[in-house]
Amino acid sequence: TLGRLFDFNKLAIYQEQSASKFEPLSSDANNLDGLNIHCAIIDELHAHKTRDVWDVLETATGARLQSLLFGITTAGFNKEGICYEQRDYAIKVLRGYNSDVEGAVKDDSYFAIIYTLDEGDDPFDETVWQKANPGLGICKRWDDLRRLAKKAKEQVSARVNFFTKHMNVWVTAESAWMDMIKWEKCEYIAPQHELD
């Protein structure tokens, strides 16, 4: 078993023979300078208020030939933050292998996968849920997602959590006070003569 190959304490899993360790890091970027890492995993990148930790860890991979920096997250609501910036770049990279697509970037050092709904999908339609939840029925239960969807449909305040955490859809605010689905149905484009 792996337990025979590694030692551990409350702070880290380590192997003295290779001078390797796996440990949680501070969320304070000021305490992370000087690292020389093979791999860093930043969980819930959307929750990072600044890009500082990402930048320090990205710099810390520079001395290694095969270093990896992972950002794992659900959607959030800060479209000015590092997570949305990485999402935007990921989309450009995913388009990058089709040179005819505007805004495409070819970057073989960047791997991205985004599980989310397509624009225009109804988040309350069960037939689209697996787009954002590829493990639905395996590591996430259908009945639980149905319960959360019902709650979000009935309670505007529950929608942000349902959209971001379960449909991986970015929203514009931490909390909802208006039913945006109903709001969007009210769209009216006024003819020019009404505006004159």
TrEMBL record:
Domain Terminase large subunit-like ATPase: 8-90
Domain Terminase large subunit-like endonuclease: 105-187
Pfam families (UniProt xref): TerL_ATPase, TerL_nuclease
Highest taxon above the source species: Bacteria
Molecular function (Gene Ontology), one example: endonuclease activity
Protein name per UniProt: Terminase large subunit
Protein species of origin: Escherichia coli
